[in-house]
């Protein structure tokens, strides 16, 4: 089942875009071929959103990002501008993560809270736990991984666009997918470490929440 899921994702995010891009650009031009190649991923993401009933902050963040990206694609007017728009949008999202770290409210905490809520835990209690002084540093580290991912991906995107122009499109899809897999693993490990570290506090006897918050 998991293998089928992986194969489906490879087809949707790599196979179909490659087919549409390589076979369509000669007939309808670079821009429209690029636009059409994004449709499979959009449809699949919405399908997964509805199927998994991700009606939470994470789900709506994904859908909102997808909608914003699609609007920018439609407004781009050219293939090269469409590529640059994806770079600027990615930088904007990365800056949000950076800002959350500066404000000492790392987005990783809110993502963890939503995940724990899906497991049946109270949002308020999870937030209270994760925002304890020692735990915030752990989630700052996880958020930093998101930032590094964004900066690295964006830097590679800029280099490829400058070097290859619109021909960088498929390179970008492959690179983003490959780096996405690598960083997803790192982020998962980061969340696992931070979450386990935080949960240890709950199991420690004779520790009051108020005292922990004051530390």
UniProtKB/TrEMBL annotation:
The chain crosses the membrane at residues 5-21, 27-47, 59-84, 96-117, 138-162, 168-194. Keywords: Membrane, Transmembrane, Transmembrane helix. This is DUF3159 domain-containing protein. It comes from Psychrobacillus glaciei.
